[in-house]
Amino acid sequence: MADLQDIQVIDPGVDDSIAKLTPERIEQVINRVLTEESAARLQTYLETCVHCGLCADACQSYISRDKDPDFAPVAKVKDTLWEMVKRKGKVDGEFLHNAARIAFIDCGACRRCSMYCPFGIDISYLIMTVRRILNLLGVVPQYLQDTTNSHAATMNQMWVQQDDWIDTLMWQEEDAQAELAGTRIPLDKEGAEIMYSVIGPEPKILAQLIANMAIIFKVAGADWTMPSTDGWDNSNMAMYSGDFETMGRVERLHWERAMELKVKRVVMGECGHAYRGAVYDGPRWLGWTEPPIPMVHAVEFYYEMITSGRLKIVRKIEEPVTVQDPCNIVRGRGLHHKLRYVINALCEDFRDMEPRYEHNYCCQAGGGLINCGPPWKPSRMKSNRIKADQIRETGAHLVITPCHNCHSGIEDIIGYYKLGAHVNFISELLIKCIEIPQD
Amino acid sequence: MYDFIRGPLVWIAFLGFFGGMAYQLVTMARLARKDKVVYKTLELRYGLRSILHWVIPFAGVNMRKKPLYTVLSYAFHVCVLATPIFLLAHVVLWRASWGVSWWSLPDKVADGMTLVVIVACLFFIIRRLVRPEVRNVSYWSDFFIALLVMAPFVTGFAAHYQWFSYRGMLIAHIVSGALWLLLIPWTRLIHMMWFPFTRAYMGSEFGAVRHARDW
Predict the structure, then answer these.
(1) What is the pLDDT of residues A163-216, one digit of tens each?
(2) Which of B149, B198, B206, B211 would you mutate first to test chain A, the one with the most A CBs within 10 A?
(3) For A53, which of B134, B139, B194 is closest by C-beta distance?
(4) pLDDT tens digits for A51-71?
């Protein structure tokens, strides 16, 4: 049983929307998604699950809440999808409120549980199906829906306007030049080797990261560019709110921009879900088997630059560090060894978390969770005590997170559980550690 | 009645089982086309890699975390599939009916395997009752399925040792066995057919698309 505090959270995006629904509408939407939008996967998964409960131990929320059976992945499916199927879509508002809490707050779609199911049932896909239903009913946590609205209206996640975007890049170019003369942020350079993609929060609240990256590109001698117009943001909260139409528009525009610039590849900044959206979910929705241009995540790019000697490490971080394996680039792309290579190159005292690699626990912030906003933060924190324990056990003071959601999520956990550590992206460490020749 | 059970009912059970499975397979193959990602994602190499890691005992992390469950579950699945096919009394029947014959299990071994099935089913049922995370997702149908799987083994064992009424036990054995076969395609027991497919799909998605391991 989720505790009362979590159940009683009032979210206008959820509760006000439910108040406007009719039983007919609910039934119609649920049945449409179950019969028309989904097919073999949904049906096979529903028929195959033997209710064995072996997925329970996979979930950080189940473990963190003292093995509360309601937080086992299978229970989350039971309390949402199984009931919708059983009742043939005839569910009430209270049920939907509960389903929204489970699908949007209690599951980060990290897919750890599908590695624990003997049948390989994609439980996260089942939860995403619930989110799809809720989205079509308009029942989405308000903060998350706001980011989706921003995507739909501005094609970026944070309502960044066109002039703000260019202005921010120029500002960061100047800042970077103060560090390293001659640094540029080349806009719309057709035929460049690399298009660099960032996510909405970077220009909005973490602009310094863009200057860091400009310096890194300059030192590495990379031929790179950024688009001056929409399509620069490939973060995608619509993918997590269940608004797949908007998700597809965002991804298509992003790839179209890269095609127009005729770049050879896209380097994606340190973000996991944006990578997932651009490499899998987007292309699949658009009917492509893979992206039109290869995309590499920042971790792969750094690895390449360090191993090839284009970035020279001249100083190392001395304090003990650990790393959060982001689901979308580790379970989702197998980058864990490259990630460790980069960290060991930069840090003297690297201490791994246990479990790690594909088996690392989710940050309980990705998958759209942190975007559901302050009303749900206490619940998120309670659902990831295990992460606090993991960090504490390493004794590290610095947690490296090559993913924006992990970054914010781990920061929250450090604050809530008073771990006295801090969080950095790899680029922030690179800037301190690489040789920056002043010519 | 005994004649019906011994003759037509067995035919009905086998036809129902194979027919039902074939129907489900064809229906699902069609549905998979509608689910656009399925065929595009499936890759033999990664599919087999995943299946291999999940049919070898203790090859996956979760299996190592739950040794008792792993041992019992493997023993159960081997015995539940092999015993009915290789039991001497059944092999004799295969030969009498269809003229085909194969190797059969020594009696003592078959007895042991039958007991393994019964004990494992009891374990599954008890686990369902005592483990909160399993009890929470258990429906009456889950208990029914476990009892259904157990029934032909209990009655067959009792008939073999002529406990209670031999004729009565034999009837119960054949009827429960037939019911079991007939229900496989329409209950969660169909996991016996879907297992390689769901595994291969997840293995392909993890291996080919996500460059990661799924065990």
Answers:
(1) 999 999 999 999 999 999 999 999 999 999 999 999 999 999 999 999 999 999
(2) B198
(3) B134
(4) 999 999 999 999 999 999 999
CA distance B24 to chain A (A): 10
Half-sphere exposure of A421 (CA within 13 A, CB side): 31
B150: left (phi over 0), alpha (psi -120 to 50) or beta: alpha
Distance of alpha carbon A77 from alpha carbon A84, whole angstroms = 10
| Contact status of A305 with chain B (Cβ, < 8 Å) | no
Comparing CA positions, the residue from A131, A152, A144 lying closest to residue A33 is: A131
- Confirm or reject contact between B210 and chain A (CB < 8 A): yes
CB-count burial class (<10 Å; 0-12, 13-18, 19+) for A337 = exposed
pLDDT in tens, B127-153: 999 999 999 999 999 999 999 999 999
pLDDT tens-digit profile of A178-190? 999 999 999 999 9
pLDDT tens for A39-48 read: 899 999 999 9
* CA–CA distance, A164 with A171 (Å, rounded to integer): 10
Q: A333 and B198: CB-CB below 8 Å? A: no
Residue recorded with tokens 């509608």: B34
Give the pTM.
Answer: 0.95
For β-strands A398-400 and A422-424, DSSP reports them as parallel
Q: Which helix (H) or strand (E) holds B176?
A: helix B166-183
Alpha carbon distance A431, A427 (integer Å): 6
CA-CA distance, B181 to B173, in Å (whole number)? Answer: 12
b vs e for B21-60, b when ≥16 Cβ sit within 10 Å of the residue's Cβ? beebeeebeebbeebebbebbbbeebbbbbbebbeeeeeb
Angle at A275 between CA A269 and CA A281, to 5 degrees: 160
- B40: nearest CA partner in chain A: A289
CA quadruple A37, A369, A328, A287: dihedral, nearest 10:
20
- Distance, in Å, from the CA atom of A338 to the CA atom of A304, rounded to the nearest integer, reads 9
Distance from CA of B2 to the nearest CA of A (A): 34
CA–CA distances in Å: residue A142 to residues A127, A139, A323, A366:
19, 9, 31, 17
Of A220, A215, A213, A218, the residue nearest A199 (C-alpha): A213
Q: Is the ipTM of this complex over 0.90?
A: yes
Contact A333 B211 (CB under 8 A): yes
Helix (H) or strand (E) holding B178: helix B166-183
Distance CA B160, CA B114 (A): 11
Interface of A with B in 55-74 (CB under 8 A): 56-58, 62, 67, 69-70, 72, 74
d(CA A16, CA A18): 5
B195 touches A: beta carbon within 8 Å: yes
CB count within 10 Å of CB B63 equals: 22
Structure-block tokens of residue B105 = 């299990």
Task: Read off the DSSP letter of residue A335.
Answer: -
Among residues B190, B173, B185, B187, which one has the least CA distance to residue B141? B187
